[in-house]
Specification:
Order of helices and strands: EHEEHEHHEEHEEHEEEHEEHEEHH
Radius of gyration: 19 Å
Strand order of the largest sheet: 3-2-1-4-5-7-12
Number of domains: 2
CATH topology of the largest domain: Rossmann fold
Number of strands: 15
Bound molecules: nicotinamide-adenine-dinucleotide, uridine-5'-diphosphate-glucose
CATH class of the largest domain: Alpha Beta
Distance between the termini: 41 Å
Helix content: 40-55%
Largest sheet: 7 strands, parallel
Strand content: 15-25%
Shape: globular
CATH architecture of the largest domain: 3-Layer(aba) Sandwich
């Protein structure tokens, strides 16, 4: 039986994908250096603690485990940090991806699923991006991911790789059964920050920008539940295993919510009286970023199961309560 190598499988999104893979009976090996991941998030798979840029280690894993496909989540992901320290991002997200790809080519592993991002589009005209929208990242994080996309495209042209590039929009929510979740320390993402405040972990919450040209003046994003996103990865794997061609696909629901709508939903679901301040725009934030996501449905037969902001918030909040109870017990 062949194995899937999942890099970054101890992280937020990777751990949800690993859980779905193992529930389906797939054999999985996770490679993660735990810089932002957690060993106990890896369920149903072997965890190897190591760096994805370590070519000797990766080559050994590919052959010893008879790997037939790679899912590559390992990355640094904090946009403002990428602006302050770009080489950290080019090093981990681009150079390490290059090393991983070199190992795959050498070992003849030619199925690759890559975690890309809506950040490759930058600030698309009209706030809606399809896969052919010009790629104009406005921060090093987005550029570091785009460079990885380019390597994959060129390997595809050279006949050395078939790939599915998944461009995630705003990923949120957690395992509805509460077994794993988003534990990222020092989180900056709106939904996580709002849930942390709702459970008392933060004293307040800021809205960054109330003067955007949007109906309520705040930024609009396309929030996709992590379980739906994980399901898209399993479909991408099936596509490559049945000799499907290389694809680049947006992952979102095709509609969005404003910052105020997200905060109102967290307030309603949690019952907490949130302390919200209004602050100036955060540098580099587009007013609106929504996926045109028809291609994902058409090409992989994917249909969302959790396209419901309240459900997303309920699952995120349940995980935050779990973390708060665990911390209180320590
Ligand atoms: N969260 C989002 O909304 C979002 C949106 C778009 C794209 N993405 C992409 O999805 C992927 C997963 O993101 P996440 O939100 O789960 O982040 P995360 O930080 O929870 O997960 C990343 C994982 O990669 C590991 N890692 C990092 N560098 C490594 C290295 N050199 N070697 C081995 N392991 C390493 C970390 O320890 C962590 O477990 C990333 O590639 C990210 O760019 C995330
Ligand atoms: O405390 C906060 C945090 C965020 N926001 C706003 O909320 C929206 C969403 O912000 P955030 O949750 O930080 O996500 P994005 O900045 O949209 O970026 C995320 O989503 C991208 C894909 O769209 C990914 O590529 C990035 O990795 C990921 O950080 C934006 O309008 C922010 O200005 C606030 O008002 N207050």
């Amino acid at each position: 039986m062949s194995t899937i190598l999942v890099t970054g499988g101890a992280g937020y999104i990777g751990s949800h994908v690993v859980q779905q893979l193992s529930e389906r009976g797939e054999r999985v090996v996770v490679l993660d250096n735990l810089v932002s991941g957690f060993a106990d998030a890896v369920r149903g798979a072997e965890l190897v603690v190591g760096n994805v840029g370590d070519q000797a280690l990766v080559s050994r894993l590919l052959t010893e485990h008879k790997v037939d496909a790679v899912m590559h989540f390992a990355a640094h992901t904090v946009v403002p940090e990428s602006v302050r320290d770009p080489l950290k991002y080019y090093g981990n997200n681009t150079c390490n991806t290059r090393n991983l790809l070199a190992c795959c080519v050498e070992a003849g592993v030619d199925r690759f699923i890559f975690s890309s991002t809506a950040a490759v589009y930058g600030t698309p005209a009209g706030g809606v991006a399809d896969e052919d929208t010009p790629l104009q990242p406005i921060n090093p994080y987005g550029s570091s991911k785009l460079m990885s996309e380019m390597m994959l495209r060129d390997l595809g042209t050279a006949g050395a790789m078939r790939y599915v590039i998944l461009r995630y929009f705003n990923v949120a929510g957690c395992d509805p059964l509460g077994r794993i979740g988003q534990s990222t320390p020092n989180a900056t993402l709106l939904l996580k920050v709002a849930c942390e405040h709702a459970v008392g972990k933060r004293p307040g919450l800021a809205i960054f920008g109330t003067d955007y040209d949007t109906p309520d003046g705040t930024g609009i994003r396309d929030y996709i539940h992590v379980e739906d996103l994980a399901a898209a990865h399993l479909r991408a794997l099936d596509h490559l295993r049945t000799d499907g061609e290389s694809l680049t696909l947006n992952c979102g629901y095709g509609h969005g919510y404003s910052v105020r709508e997200v905060i109102d939903t967290v307030r309603r679901v949690s019952g907490a009286a949130l302390q919200v301040t209004e602050q100036p725009r955060r540098a580099g934030d587009p007013p609106m970023l929504i996926a045109r996501a028809d291609r994902l449905r058409q090409r992989l037969g994917w249909t969302p199961r959790h396209d419901d902001l309240e459900f997303i918030v309920r699952t995120a909040l349940a995980w935050e309560r779990h973390l708060a109870a665990r911390d209180a017990a320590r």
